[in-house]
Design brief:
heterodimer, A: 148 residues, alpha+beta, 3-stranded mixed sheet, two-stranded antiparallel ribbon, B: 413 residues, mainly alpha, two-stranded antiparallel sheet, disordered C terminus
């Protein structure tokens, strides 16, 4: 199955914020969608420019509760910053023409719950949600349908 | 070639003994780094090192240089320019003042105390080196106390910012001092030092650009550690081959890689940040192996003077800096005493100095004084941090579980 077919059949949401969003704003957006675990930073042209995972956001917000912190984490806590300074610029993504199998391999390896699907210009088209894939896999196994 | 296996065996025995004693010390609530030092002392030439015929000193140089390069890279990449701007004037001014004041007071004290030459080295050179080493602090000890007592408030914020920055000032100053004293006399060395500094900055910047590009192409997580380590070794090695400063080149490598490689820097730094504990195990055990009771006893007055002068400089400089930057009264008054902890980075610098031709013959002096003062700060530092936070009114409810004055030792650098 191609990724474009999957996102057409499973039109999930991908959480996105602007690069200028504060940490509080990003957290509010994430917590408003309990099923989603990844936030994508999108510029004015709709292109995805960065990624903030649930784990990273939790580390940033709850940094003071950690006994061991690196100097980099200390500076992040002291200086704060907008999404553009906290995000990871290198992130896994999928293109609509890829096979879903290949994407899932990458998704599991990088621990991304919501894999963004980008067009050739980097514009966000949708996301492959790992939980939805698991659900579909289980359903197919139970009903004897062809696996994904 | 015959010595190589023996040196490896010595290092293996040293590190595994240090690790075992450190784990044991943690379990019974004793400082882990003290246990590392004890392991090192056990393998010093007068004790097991001599009995077993192990030539540790021969084999440890390259390892400690690499370890210091890793730490310098991590320290250089700890902050971005934008973060420095946002951290604010108070943190930046207080950091510069406390680090430079500690260096100045220690330098002046050592100048007053030492004869014109010691072990064939000019006392001005020795004073400058001790001064540069005095800048550094131990962030892990501070963080552990803040965590244990749930400290919150302006003083805690400024303290975190200062301890995460001042090692960078210390390392840069140290690299400058080594460059300036390499020419034999300070006056003749200054001109050469400028060239060394400029060359090291250029090499580190170019290396940072290349490293950030290279690591962005490494998509498999397990390959990032070797990629970053190779970058650090290549940059430090080139600096050494070109007679530049490997330390300064590694700091600039970290800073420029972070600057050019994206804001978060996870790909570039997370792989090596986890090596810190191993690096400090190397520093303390190898330094312990250089322990010499006679040199230690002979320089006890210098050890005492260095320890007191560093604290006086830190307190005076932090007070001045915080006041100049318009910090709240509790920060002005109590920031200095909270900067007492000092540990791994200073020991690493002392080990680096032992390899410098300009300081040949003084390895025992530096290592024994810095080791002694580190153990002293290890005992008193966390107590000073706690007292300062308490006076500043920022101690919260103490966490249940391990005692703070013991727990810090598990992570102290």
């Amino acid at each position: 199955m191609k990724v474009k077919d999957w996102i057409q059949a499973h039109p999930g949401t991908a959480l996105s914020v602007t690069p200028d969003a504060s940490l509080d704003e990003v957290l509010d957006r994430l917590l408003a969608e309990p099923c989603l675990r990844d936030v994508w930073i999108v510029d004015d042209a709709g292109r995805v420019v960065g990624h903030l995972s649930h784990q990273r956001l939790a580390q940033l917000a709850l940094g003071a509760h950690r006994r061991h912190r690196t100097r980099r984490q200390l500076m992040e806590q002291v200086a704060g910053g907008a999404a553009r300074e906290l995000m990871t610029e290198h992130f896994p993504h999928a293109s609509p023409e890829e096979e879903l199998d290949d994407v899932l391999h990458r998704q599991i390896e990088h621990g991304v719950e919501d894999m963004p699907v980008l067009d050739s210009a980097g514009v966000l088209l949708g996301a492959v949600n790992l939980t939805a894939v698991l659900r579909e896999t289980r359903r197919a196994a139970r009903s004897g349908d062809e696996p994904l | 070639m015959a010595e190589e296996p023996q040196a490896h065996l010595a290092l293996g025995l040293l590190l595994s003994t240090g690790l075992a004693l450190g784990s044991l010390a943690s379990r019974v609530g004793l400082p882990r780094i003290a246990a590392y030092v004890v392991a090192g002392i056990c393998f010093s030439p007068p004790l097991l090192g001599g009995t077993l015929g192990l030539r540790l000193v021969d084999g440890a140089g390259a390892l400690t240089s690499t370890a210091l390069g890793v730490i310098a890279y991590v320290i250089g990449g700890a902050m971005t320019g934008a973060q420095l701007k946002r951290a604010g004037r108070i943190i930046v001014v207080a950091t510069l003042c406390e680090a430079l004041a500690a260096a100045a007071v220690v330098c002046a004290t050592v100048l007053l105390l030492l004869p014109p030459t010691l072990y064939g080295v000019d006392r001005l050179h020795l004073a400058l080196a001790f001064g540069a080493m005095a800048c550094t602090t131990a962030p892990a000890a501070t963080v552990a106390v803040l965590h244990q007592y749930r400290a919150r408030g302006p003083m805690s914020d400024v303290l975190l910012g200062v301890v995460s920055l001042d090692d960078a000032v210390g390392l840069t100053l140290f690299a400058g001092v080594v460059a300036a004293t390499t020419g034999g006399s300070l006056a003749s060395g200054l001109a050469g030092a400028l060239g060394v500094i400029a060359g090291s900055v250029a090499l580190g910047t170019a290396g940072g650009w290349l490293l950030s590009r290279a690591v962005s192409q490494v998509h498999e997580t397990p390959l990032r550690l070797p990629a970053v380590l190779a970058g650090i070794l290549l940059c430090s090695g080139l600096a050494e081959a070109l007679h530049l400063s490997p330390l300064l080149a590694a700091i600039v490598l970290g800073f420029s890689a972070r600057w050019l490689g994206g804001p978060a820097g996870d790909r570039l730094f997370a792989p090596v940040e986890h090596l810190e504990e191993f690096v400090f195990l190397i520093f303390f055990t190898v330094a312990g192996a250089h322990f010499d009771a006679w040199v230690f006893a002979q320089h006890l007055p210098l050890l005492a003077a260095y320890s007191v002068a560093r604290v006086a400089g830190k307190v005076g400089g932090a007070t001045l800096g915080a006041r100049l930057a318009g910090a709240p009264p509790q920060v002005v008054r109590w920031l200095g005493p909270a900067l007492v902890p000092q540990a791994g980075v200073a020991v690493g610098l002392a080990l680096a100095l032992a390899r410098q031709p300009a300081f040949s013959g003084t390895a025992g002096l530096f290592l024994n004084v810095i080791l002694g003062s580190t153990l002293l700060y290890e005992l008193l530092g966390p107590l000073a941090v706690r007292a300062a936070l308490s006076r500043a009114g920022e101690l919260g409810e103490r966490r249940s579980g391990a005692r703070a004055d013991v727990e810090h030792t598990r992570v102290d650098r």
